[in-house]
Design brief:
The protein is mainly α. It is built from 1 helix and no strands. It is 76% helix and 0% strand. This is Site-2 protease family protein.
């Protein structure tokens, strides 16, 4: 395993986690706007 492989993973994994987090936040926001209060509870 070389250092560029490790660096690539260290940059990709946090971005992937942030992307999933914001994606799910958008689901909750859209549901709330459409009348489902579950996401706010």
């Amino acid at each position: 395993m070389n250092s560029s492989f490790l660096l690539e993973k260290l940059l990709i994994v946090p971005g992937f986690i942030l992307g999933i987090t914001f994606h799910e936040l958008a689901h909750g926001y859209a549901a709330y706007i459409l009348g489902d209060p579950t996401a706010k509870k």
